[in-house]
Amino acid sequence: xxxxxxxxxxxxxxxxxxxxxxxxxxxxxxxxxxxxxxxxxxxxxxxxxxxxxxxxxxxxxxxxxxxxxxxxxxxxxxxxxxxxxxxxxxxxxxxxxxxxxxxxxxxxxxxxxxxxxxxxxxxxxxxxxxxxxxxxxxxxxxxxxxxxxxxxxxxxxxxxxxxxxxxxxxxxxxxxx
Amino acid sequence: xxxxxxxxxxxxxxxxxxxxxxxxxxxxxxxxxxxxxxxxxxxxxxxxxxxxxxxxxxxxxxxxxxxxxxxxxxxxxxxxxxxxxxxxxxxxxxxxxxxxxxxxxxxxxxxxxxxxxxxxxxxxxxxxxxxxxxxxxxxxxxxxxxxxxxxxxxxxxxxxxxxxxxxxxxxxxxxxxxxxxxxxxxxxxxxxxxxxxxxxxxxxxxxxxxxxxxxxxxxxxxxxxxxxxxxxxxxxxxxxxxxxxxxxxxxxxxxxxxxxxxxxxxxxxxxxxxxxxxxxxxxxxxxxxxxxxxxxxxxxxxxxxxxxxxxxxxxxxxxxxxxxxxxxxxxxxxxxxxxxxxxxxxxxxxxxxxxxxxxxxxxxxxxxxxxxxxxxxxxxxxxxxxxxxxxxxxxxxxxxxxxxxxxxxxxxxxxxxxxxxxxxxxxxxxxxxxxxxxxxxxxxxxxxxxxxxxxxxxxxxxxxxxxxxxxxxxxxxxxxxxxxxxxxxxxxxxxxxxxxxxxxxxxxxxxxxxxxxxxxxxxxxxxxxxxxxxxxxxxxxxxxxxxxxxxxxxxxxxxxxxxxxxxxxxxxxxxxxxxxxxxxxxxxxxxxxxxxxxxxxxxxxxxxxxxxx
Lengths: 177, 613
Known about the structure:
- The structure holds two protein chains of two kinds.
- Chain A is mainly α.
- Helix content of chain A is 76%, strand content 0%.
- Chain A folds into two domains: 44 residues, Helix Hairpins; 101 residues.
- Chain B has three domains: 278 residues, Nucleotidyltransferase, domain 5; 112 residues, Substrate Binding Domain Of DNAk, Chain A, domain 1; 88 residues, Substrate Binding Domain Of Dnak, Chain:A, Domain 2 (Up-down Bundle).
- Chain B is globular, with a radius of gyration of 27 Å.
- In chain B, strands 1, 2, 3, 4, 10 and 11 form a six-stranded mixed sheet that branches. Chain B has a five-stranded mixed sheet with strand order 17-12-13-14-18, sandwiched between helices. Chain B has a four-stranded antiparallel sheet with strand order 20-19-22-23, with no helix packed on it.
């Protein structure tokens, strides 16, 4: 059990509404508010992506609920090809043509971009560790700013690729295979 | 303050359980018939009193238009939601029903929470009779996949029954609690709960900490309209089809035959859990007898689609918990329908391990509810349940899309805050539409509530209103608004789209007391006597049949003795004794009934040719 989970469980023992059934209305309300905040916090902190988003909001790099997407420049050619294949698939579907070859091509692309997504997740993890290290080491504002910029960029790139993969999944699942 | 109990308000059967001492184990409370299962059937007697349970179940055959079963399928739903159910279930719904469904029993109308409240009141009577104490608080269980409206309706039912509902607990979570207590296992546990009308799958992590044991739900999924009822419907459709092909009888013309057939098929279904084949001999009202031998294989072929439908939610729950099937250390089966061998086999193959079936699948949910009731009553304990919300909470945004603000499988209580402002000068209201569900468009999700935020007149964009959405530990939504400029709090009355207001609940509570004013024991006695008369008449009629001369002399004298004993007990006021004598007479007349049945069947065979024989 990691430290986050342990802290979450410990605080749950203290705050959960089950412990306050026979108390005053004010205590019950406080338990409800605090345990919901605890659960909300745990939900964000245990998810590496949500956690980075939250950090960037705290540091004023992002607005709450903002989902900017950014096409990774080195992937532009592959993205272009993928979009073409998707268009072809849609056309072929409406013409009830044979989708075999196209579906295969898209599955390969889907796998490819899935790997890219993992790469981004890995880079994000590294950058997040750099952030923690920078805080420990009392790094300069400029250094910290650079890491935050990098995290923001990775986040935008991630949402772009994820949308792409989701789009392919959607088309393929509707392709009756 | 009176005693606290745990109640499993089921589609087919309901149960009540309690924990006798603070550290004790939970027990289910038996009713007047000796069984802990109270059939979830309600019947309105022509004299205006309400009959619940076994006695009402019998009335399904004799007074189908005054009786209702499986009302749980209607809880928290609107008239438009239940069109599919109406084709399959003999629900008679007031065509004038607008938001709230009204069910017709005889010449009166009731909402689904009122009917459920009659069942709760009956169980409360059982508990009070058994414990000799007042019972006024309860933990009620709901399917984990119930939405806000269905939960609210269940809570309303408790209040109408005069119970303070301390908590709604998800059925699979309650089962896990009873299971964990019993087996002392820790690790990842999957609870597969297929009941009469609902299916749930929950994945939990059982953790031991220095403070005590934590039952943390990681993910839950399900289908609130899938269960043993559907197996009955499939079997019924199968027989209807065969009969319309071979015989000349239309079941839709007779509610009574439909109910009788359903009863026979339920017995047949239970038989097929034990044996490899079962014979259906069903006398049709037109004098013909429909006969069909169901093999286990044929039965499994008929019900296979139902079993398959449970596996989608199972896979989704595991995916949401980020676990592979092999990572599950224990699988627990809950709900009477999991006695079906095909289901046991399917679950075992999927998880690659033998599921737990040591605990009675009918009782385990009520036992867990009693454990939770005991925990809540004591305040602080060495057990903690962390449950989740089964469905994402969202709000409608521009263009009918849904923005998810609390994702499914979030630990509850959970909350989210949204900021609102105005788009035009002096705008005085902002419309908010809250939804539950996983789909992207508002029209495909379940509408929970619509309300208008009041805004003081100001230039566009100046007002700042923060709306806090909170799902409480019961899985029920609360909404509050705060004006960020003035700090003023607005309470928002959010009535679920199919909800009942507090004043209506008060009125229903009063009415339900009127209906239930007849004393419990007195009513049991009247029912037992009525039943005694019925069986005595039937026995006398059977003796008038020439077939009865084939009885052996000692069989005849046994029956005579049982008849005399029953008559004697019926003159007294001990309803339990009358019930015992009825059972004895039933037992004594088994062979006689068989003789009469065989003669009826052979008579039917002489006269007609039936393709199915």
